[in-house]
Amino acid sequence: MAYAAACVALLAVPILAQYPEGSLYSPPISSGYGNWSAAYAKAHAFVCNLTITEKEVNSKTDPSVAKQWDNDVSAEKKFEDFYGIADKLKVALLGTLREGTGPVHRSMAVAKRTGPDFLFLANAHSQKFNDIEKHPEAVTVTFQDSSTQDWVSVTGKAVTSSNDDPRIKEVWSKATSAWFGDLGDGVHTGKPEDPRMKLIEIQPTYISYWKAEVGALGFGKEVIGAIVTGGVANTGALREMKEDEIKQARSTDSSMSS
Predict the structure, then answer these.
(1) Is there a contact between 214 and 235 (Cβ–Cβ < 8 Å)?
(2) Rounded to two decimals, what is the model's pTM?
(3) 239 and 134: one domain?
(4) pLDDT at 102 > cutoff 60
């Protein structure tokens, strides 16, 4: 009923707008009418199209899906917000595909981000290296901020390094040794030269993320408004970047590290 009433109300807008100060007894105004007519048409279509038929509901017309996507922003803006979320959180779930088990995830600190690519320092004896060896193109990296509900989902391929990769010394810190330990044999010392230390580089092929665009009050307003009107709450921006965009960012943002 609320949608129907809103739709009918909008039908009256173009009639009243043609008259100065809304007076039906004054001559119609023609100048400037076309300037806002397109905006009106979009508003009318938005409200009235919410009452679509059962057969018309699909991934493009369902507002609970279509309304969330915000891919009209520039690639620069999309990657800027993506980097901002990931750099703030620093700890992610690294997912691999394990033979006979399926997807397996573990929490890991990001050692470094270079453009859209992520670097992790890991123990070469851990099972994730076996997973990556067998399924290097079936890895994921996910982040979630519980305070804002921002999240990032990365799908891509993994490349592992040898122990002599100079980047190991670059990302190693004394705190790192706490996760390896000194085995007392003079070799497995927990230092950069420890043969157990290897890098896992994740090169994304697809990225999606959601970024909150309202605070607590705005969130409540959107949710309550949606419940009352039967509409769909819109509290943030859902965006995606595909392989071509990511390759471009890898080229242009290679100096943007964290």
Answers:
(1) yes
(2) 0.73
(3) yes
(4) yes
